[in-house]
């Protein structure tokens, strides 16, 4: 999972976190990052468990301000690479 993000000029977040979750429960846990004022790439690896059903929902969760200071980030892209 790769996310391209940056701090915003008004109320910049000092840290944010990203997680991968499925509707049946397995998740990656939170991966925390420190954004800069310029767009940067932040990534983590997570092996998604084999689905036992066809109706599984996959989510990318973004916690924009892990310090709970009211900060925000701007996300330009999210890329999920499957396999390999």
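-> sequence recovered:
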């Amino acid at each position: 999972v790769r996310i391209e993000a940056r701090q915003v000029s008004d109320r910049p977040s000092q840290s944010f976190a990203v997680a991968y979750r499925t509707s049946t429960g397995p998740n990656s846990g939170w991966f925390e990052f420190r954004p800069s004022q310029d767009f940067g790439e932040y990534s983590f690896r997570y092996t998604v468990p084999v689905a036992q059903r066809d109706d599984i929902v996959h989510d990318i969760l973004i916690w924009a301000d892990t310090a709970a200071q009211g900060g925000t980030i701007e996300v330009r892209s999210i890329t999920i690479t499957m396999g390999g």
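Residues 11 and 70 are 7 Å apart (CA to CA).
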